[in-house]
Amino acid sequence: MSAATEPAHLMALNGLAADQSLSLDERRLHEVEYWRQYGTWHCMVTCLAAAIAEIGGSDFWACVREALGRHWTGGDLPEVERIVCLCLGSLDEHASVLQLSLLILLSEKLGICHDRCLVFDPCHTDRDRSVLRHLGFAVMDSDAKAFTEVRCMTLFYMPHGDYNLTDDLVWANRRALHQVAVLGNDFGWVCDPHASDAADGGDDAGTRAPCAQRVLPFVEATELPGTPAAEAQG
């Protein structure tokens, strides 16, 4: 793999390993670290490619594509123009690499360029952010931009989003909910995981997500087969 095809953090280490202003011992230390991190990067890329191929050819992905098409057609929603991915998880975790592969497949399915896919997770390291930028994603320094009221149809992909995050999202976009779709936890669970009548909405007293509770009666949900806790909501 040439330097031009490597993430920025590897290019920086490679540059330090060749920096003649440093001592030989310092350059050797940087070279060792370069190859260590290169191995991690190569392993992640290999796993990501395998995950994209496996999921992309699976019955699960065929069902997801069908469900998304049914949701958008049935709800008469405008086409998605942007994806915001929150709570992706550390790229050191295999589960997060699988979630990343699904993000890539979603962007391809919806025709969204990677630079129109905003990504943020507070657990991401500098290396994680470097890898995501190398893949072409727009990596945010905080979630502040994610919670700015949307101005176009936006799919929020939140594989590990908790109820606080979902409630904050609803509040930030309370005047633009017609331009918001959420691929994440079911809104009934977000409001109250124990109440059997949570889907009825209404009184938000006692709910852990009052903003989501108020909009619950108006949510159009489509269950994604194979992922009982995940729904596409718009």
From TrEMBL:
The lineage of its organism: Eukaryota, Sar, Alveolata, Dinophyceae, Gonyaulacales. It holds the Pfam family SRR1. This is SRR1-like domain-containing protein. GO terms for cellular component: cytoplasm; nucleus. It comes from the Eukaryota. InterPro entries: SRR1-like (IPR012942), SRR1L (IPR040044). It comes from Alexandrium catenella. Belongs to the SRR1 family. Residues 78-188 form the SRR1-like domain.
